[in-house]
Design a protein that fits this description.
single chain, 14 strands, globular, disordered N terminus
């Protein structure tokens, strides 16, 4: 029994790590949303204007689905502040283990954007009671600090791994927020299709990731909103993020 539990926990931790790595994709330079940002200090960053227009004040909400069962939720919030725009990406998972207890996993990534530039990035993980965190800060034209794998020194701009900005699909290098390392990727368009969301079906472009973050597909609608994610766990199971709220919902 002890050996069986140990084996299952090892596989589960590998699965959780793959979930985080796949969900880790995002943070990128902003698209302009007008000739100049609004005068309100909380909206003076064009980044705030763009992402708030795309997703609304309530932000993003997805169900995390594994083996046809919801195992958690993933959220992204966009919060205007006096310093710019704070983006908070969070994931909560609860997975039953042998009908004995629930395995808990919590992830929170915080980004501060000012004038279209990533100023700070911090990550906190609670892996069933084992906690880990790190924080990076802009220093001139670089983002520096200590990550889980050691010292981090990245040239700006940085695309960290949280999917809400579709421009990440044009990149060949992304920063994995779980490992604290850069990953080489190749992203290819794989056609358009209808994606079911909570508010309405949407025509969306599918992007397939290859390289160090492989077996991952992300969908964006025609306005650039993130509407779906699918990837393989380390155990071979398929994990999907189903949109509950992803901006532009149409009442039925």
């Amino acid at each position: 029994m002890i050996k069986l539990c140990t084996l299952n926990m090892t596989r589960l931790r590998q699965y959780i790590s793959s979930v985080g790595a796949a969900l880790a994709l995002a943070g990128s330079p902003a698209w302009a949303c007008g000739d100049s940002p609004p005068a309100d200090p909380g909206y003076r960053d064009a980044t705030a204007c763009q992402w708030l227009e795309l997703y609304g004040e309530e932000g993003l909400l997805f169900q995390v689905i594994r083996k046809n069962r919801q195992v958690g939720e993933y959220r992204t919030q966009f919060i205007p502040t006096d310093d710019g725009l704070e983006v908070i990406s969070s994931m909560e998972l609860t997975i039953p283990i042998l009908w004995v207890y629930d395995y808990q996993y919590r992830y929170t990534g915080r980004e501060l954007w000012r004038d279209g530039t990533l100023e700070t990035l911090s990550v906190t993980v609670d892996d069933n009671g084992d906690s880990e965190s790190f924080s990076l800060r802009r220093d001139g034209e670089r983002l520096t600090g200590e990550g889980p794998g050691g010292a981090v020194d990245l040239p700006l701009p940085v695309w960290a791994t949280h999917h809400y900005d579709a421009s990440i699909t044009a990149q060949s290098v992304v920063f994995n927020t779980l490992t604290g390392r850069m990953n080489q990727v190749k992203v290819k368009q794989a056609g358009t299709e209808q994606v079911a969301t909570a508010g309405n079906n949407r025509l969306a472009t599918r992007y397939t990731y290859e390289g160090e973050l492989h077996d991952t597909d992300a969908w964006y609608d025609q306005q650039g909103r993130w509407v779906k994610l699918r990837f393989k766990g380390s155990d071979g199971s398929t994990i999907e993020l189903h949109c509950v709220r992803c901006g532009g919902e149409v009442s039925s």
